[in-house]
Give the backbone structure.
Amino acid sequence: MGSGPATYNGKMSLRRKFLATVINDIWGETLLFTAVATMVSAVTMLTPHKLFLNSALLGVLGTVLGLVISFRTSSAYERYSEGRKLWTSIATTSRTMAMAIWIGVSIDRSSIPPGSDRAPTQLECVIEKKSMINLVQALPVAIKHYLRGEPGVYYQDLYPLVCFLPRYAPGGQSDADMLPMWHASEDGEFPIQHQPQLGAGYRNDSMNTLTSSYKEEPSHSFMGSVRKHKVFDPEKVLPVVEVHRPLKSSRNPPPVGFTDYFPFLKIFKYIAKPFRKSPGSQDVNMREVLGGKRRKPKPCDSNVPIELSLFLLNYANVMIQGNHITGGLGGNLTGGINSMQDNIANLERVANTPLPFAYQAHLRISMWIYLLALPFQIVQTFGWLTIPGTAFATFLYLGFLEIGQQIENPFNYDLNDLDLDEFCYMIQRELHEITAHPAPKPSDYIYTHLNQPFAPADRRTAQDLLNANEEYTHSAHGPDSRPGKHSLQRTFLKGWKDVDVSTRH
């Protein structure tokens, strides 16, 4: 189970490492089958009754079940691996889009945009570009919440990045005119203020506890000395904004229930379903009993990543039509948006296409039957060793089965799932690193005393080469037959030979 956003840092403590194993999920079933093995061994060894069965089918059934479980685990890992590849593609595409906007979009504009009486200033253009890069940063965060079945935009890590987007259709200021992304985000508990007062921004109550990027808190070591550790606080670096309702945490793991500590009791939730008629009771189905916890979308839930992509595509279109970006970089920008759509569709496929329920149920029932019959088949040969043998076989088979079940949908809050929060933080760091570069003219940094472009053949700096340019500027043909530009080729050939010799063992 996940922890709150103020303390979660993605690191695996000893406790988290233990919880990440499947021991906590299968100990009940292991204990049950071990108890059956103990009963069979005691009756067989201590009484005249012999509880054993013919073991002729033991090897065949065990081999078949082993192959089926291997397929189950490998197919689940393929989904896990594909999810990781898609998030790598999202990170790469985000960088490409941010670079295209930051470098490719011009800040020297003479044309007056429609609806305005003047051309934008350079500062306005930089604000525009940085705002759209912030929207690129918001897109992976929106994908993260969408995959986890968390609707809307009112989250501490998402709302500050998208709150400046239009909320109503042109000319509208009522609920009926609210755009889908904002309409789906309202839940009625906190009515939206259609005419908010303008003023200085502030963090809402749910964010007041986030006062510093890293809070130094004392802790005691086992020797009694006091040491400090850092509390993870990634929302501190986001904009401070006005909001009419508390923002949800960036991480919203499902609450830990009784059946999470006793997973084998989940079956009773399904049995008790017909008797739970209260309006507040949650619907339970066998997919939730056998699989992960993921909220099902309700009517009018919007696809926030798609809507953010629309704003980015519209911006790219405006820049291309206004000749504010070159054709190549404009194509990279629109291509990146299209790549994002492909990634979103593939992530939806991974998240929303579970292994068929009949396969999961039949495999688990077959496993239970096999493990129940196992002590009866081996007690005659192993005697008291039937008890640890059954316990080990149960741990082995059910462990692999549970691992496959956990990683089948790798986008939830299980400790073995993909760390989507860290992926988003990584993208955030990289986008801010991109905008930290002022994008100067190449001539401002190429022709300096720090650059040795022709090394190792010629270790003079760019300034020295320009000051002594006679060597490289005269023609190779003429009255004086100077080497001229041909010596450039000789320099590069010498550099190739030096590198080739020096870098080979």
Notes: The chain has two domains: 14-193+202-254+293-435, 449-502. Strands lie at 214-220, 226-232. Residues 1-9, 198-228, 277-292 have pLDDT under 50 and may be disordered. The CA atoms of residues 313 and 334 lie 7 Å apart.
